[in-house]
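Final report, closing paragraph on structural work. Over the funding period we assembled a curated collection of sequence-structure pairs, and we close with a single example.
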Amino acid sequence: MPGSLTPTPAPFGTPQPLEVQAALGGLDGRDGTNRARGGACQLAAVNDLEAIRAWLTEYQGSPHTWRAYRREAERLLSWALIERGLALSSLAREDLQAYAAFLSDPAPRARWCGPRRSRAHPAWRPFQGALERSSRDQALAIVRGLFAYLVRAGYLATNPMGLEPRVRRRTARLEPLERALDARTWAFLWHHIAARPTATARERRERARLRFVFGAGYLLAPRVEELALHAMGSLKRLRGRWWWAVRGKGEKDARIPVPAALLSLLAEYRGAYGLPELPEAGEGTPLVLDLSGTRGVTANMIYRLITSTCRAAAAALEATDPGRAAVLRRVSPHWLRHTSLSHQADAGVDLRYLNLNARHAKFETTRRYVHANDAAWHAAMDSFAIGGIAPTTTPNES
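Its predicted structure, as stored:
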């Protein structure tokens, strides 16, 4: 049986980013005990690194997914080499059970955990700390998918995670939505951005770009990759109305109404870069420009732009409202999408249009944003007293 419960110590002592993994010696997977033998492999890969890279290539059209999958592949590969002394293609079911436990407590911490750093930094680590349950589930689902792909491709003989008992899992899309800002926190964030300095041309560009990115995030509910991959020409005027022609998840084409508020932000943004107020048909200027105005920015750069802005807003709010400051520090770009759709639902946007704006395949996914009955339900419970005495105020709220 491939794998071992008592592996020999590995000669690898420090986790490495996937792109710098190279000389793995006898642990490169060429002779992995779970390699498929005698059949036709659909991959040109001769070792585990090449097989992982072939799998990642399947997702290169979706940068956010690609980065998430790379992260889990490099975590697993480094763990296999360092903690088990095994090639990835020699891992057995027992090894993956041990890996699942490891995700709950990546130890020793000095080897595996550290603050977020550049991938080129010598103190880079694959974890910031132990993963929460939802993150562990996601990590293991990605690893399961990697092994399933390598089996289907004829690179591996079996999927070491294929023996997991089939348990009924909660459907994530039916769970209450939590990664969205309430109206008050969003308003603070928006005013914080508006208050940025505008004394120099660079500052005016920074402020206008931020207002456009956050405004587009709130009014169009995009995914971060969509902002990075589209050009200004994707904003089109059709029969007197402006639309965003977007190619999104699953390479599906859609169009989203562009409201007047976003056109105003767009005109301000383009003006700061010396461009005409509105884009021309087919214009190739990137939707999100770098500060020089010569090229577009990556999805990762937009991610950092949004998260750093939210952290700065959190710092400004900390003294007066530490609870909301803590929420702002957790914000990622996808929070803007959730916030947009949640606020649209609260504003009474028809579910049909909300579904079109969200570009969900199923109405059940969109329906989680509809909170129309929540206020009445909550009010009914607030009137339900303890000992005949109902509270008249709610602590720490306004």
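The chain has two domains: 18-169, 183-371. The chain has 15 helices and three strands. We thank the funder for supporting this effort.
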